[in-house]
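Progress against Task 2.4 (sequence-to-structure conversion) is shown through the following example record, which the project officer requested during the mid-term review.
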Amino acid sequence: NPQSDTDIIAGLLRHETAYWQRSATARMLNLDYSVLCRAVAVACLAGADSEGAAATLMSCISDLADSAEIRGKTARWLHDLYPTASAQSADNSTHDEQLSTTARTEWLGSIRPDLIAEQFIVNELDSTPVSVSRLITQLPEHRITRVLTTLGRAAQHRRQAENLIRAALTADLKRTAVSAVHVAIETNPLVAELLIGALDAQPVPAETLT
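Structure tokens generated for the chain above:
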């Protein structure tokens, strides 16, 4: 019988998670399987501009919050797990000049294609929306837009992503509201509905509304 899209994606993710476990073992990164998966999910969701920013991302995962050394080691593992275009072309100055600013500053790569990354993110973070809330509070504006865009795309085929969008919006509505408007227009109108609900429940300063 032909496999469904869900079966195919699940099979690809099993292959990826086996790769992560082998890689982490080789790097002597002794983390539980669930923590490895959550670290990859957060990295795919938010990305980072530098090693320091990537290490800070990991603090939204409760198991890693108390150890700066392990957060740094995890960040370097994630960096090597999926090399970015800028990392791959670091020695090719001609090609590097053609990369966009975003590509040049992206320090963390992601699972490809995007559809698989989106499903994985929702699978891993749906049970812990608090991780998304913690994440949002430490991100710059362009990273907040990326988080909401990724979750907005995911919500087109996974309704569970709505809970993660709500968690992101309400974590710091003053900072997420404007990004949410852009994402609602460019990616998924559902984000506008969720934003309206958040604004009804939580006041924001007049300048944010303006």
